[in-house]
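FOLDING PROBLEM:
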Amino acid sequence: MKLNGVFLPHEKGTENCETIKIPLPAKVRISMSQSMGAPCEPLVKKGDRVLVGQKIGDSDKFMSAPVHSSVSGTVMAVSDILLANGRTCKAVEIETDGKQEVSPEVKPPDVTDKESLCKAIRESGCVGLGGAGFPTHIKLNYNEAKCHVDSLVINAAECEPYITSDYRTMIEEADSVADGIRLVKKYLGIEKAYIGIEDNKPEAIRLMREKTADDADISVVKLRSSYPQGAEKVIAFNTTGRIIKEGQLPSDQGIIVMNVSTAAFISSYIKTGMPLVSRRLTIDGDIVKTPCNVSAPIGTSYSELLAFAEANMEFAHKIISGGPMMGMCVYDAETPLTKTNNAVLAFKKPLEDKKGMVDSCRQTNCINCGRCIAACPLGLMPARFEKAYDRRDKATLLRLKINLCMNCGSCSYACPAKRDLAEKNQLAKAFAMAK
C-alpha cells in the first residue's frame, strides 16, 4: 500500500550549491514568536548590549521555546511586528557591531539522560526545522507511562519544489546528522531509527548509508519522489508502516518524527552549546539571478537575503516563506528570517491575457472529476469539504474527517477547475473546530 499524492516538477536547481555564509547585516529584527506555540517575552530593553547566543526572550508557557540573539550589538528598539499570519508580537531590533562576540552563557550542556537532554534542547531554543516549528523538547519529552516510543523517523524527504537546504545539510553535515540521531536514540532509549529520503537524492542516500553503516538499528529508507512525502503522517507510514490515526500524535503509535536539520542541530548544540541563532535556507525563484543556499543570522530581513542572491525586486510579485505548496506569502520584503524558514522564494508577476485576466487563475465550477480525492495523500474528499463548508454543515465536515487535512495543497494543484480547495479546507477546519 502507498499513500496518494502528486508529482511536482522538482526545480532543485540549487542542490549542488554549497552553503554560503552571508555578510553580517547592519541590523536584525528578532521576532519573539519563533515556533508553534506561545510567543516569548523580551528579556532586554532599548540600549542594552547583547552578545551572540545570549537569551533575549523566554516564556513560562508550556508550548514555547526561548529566543537568543544571533548577533552582538546594541538593542535599538523593542517593538511590535506584524507576522505573515496577520498576528502581532514583540520583536527585538539589534544594531550589529560587527564583532560577533559570543555570550559567556554559551557552553556545552551536561547531558546524561532523557531529562537533561530535553532540558538542554529547550535551552537551545530548538524547534522543528522542517517548517512547522513544534518545540523539540516537548516532542521528545513524551509520557513513557502512556506510550512506548521505539522508532525515530528522520524526515529527509524535502518534497517541496525548489528547497534544497535539508539536502545540503545531509551533504555538508552528514556526521552531525548521524550523531544527532544516535544521541536521541541513546538518551530516549529508542530502538530503531529510519531516515526517509526521496529517490531523487541519490548522493544523500549514499552518504547517509555510509555514515550509518556500522549501526544496524539505523535504516535509510529510499522513498518515491512524490508530494507530500515529507508530511508527518505520510513519512511515518512509508518508513514504519504505522498509521497515525485522527486525533493521535506520532508518539501514540510509538514514533517520533524529526526533521533531518533538527537532528544535525542537536549534535552541534550538544558539542558547542551554541543555541539556534542561524538558519540554512534556499533562495530561489524566477527573479533570482543567483539561486543559492545560505546560512544567515536569525532576524535578517528577506530583502537582504534576496539582495545577496541578486533578485530583481522591480519585478517582484510574490515572496514566499517556505515552499510553493505549503509556504506562506509575506506582505513585506522587510519580514525577518525566523527559525522555521527553510527557503525564501521570489517570483515575478504572471503573464496576463488580452482581457487583463490571469488565465492560470480562472476558476470554474467543480466538474466532479474526483482528481482531488485521488491526489489527497490521506484519501479525503476536498470537493465535498468545500460544499459542506459553503452550507456551514459542521456534522458532515466532521464525518468526512476534515481534521485530518494537513493543508498540503495537493487537491488545489490537481483540480482542473482551479478551485481554491486547500484554502477552503482550512476555513472549513477552523469552522468545524470552533465551539
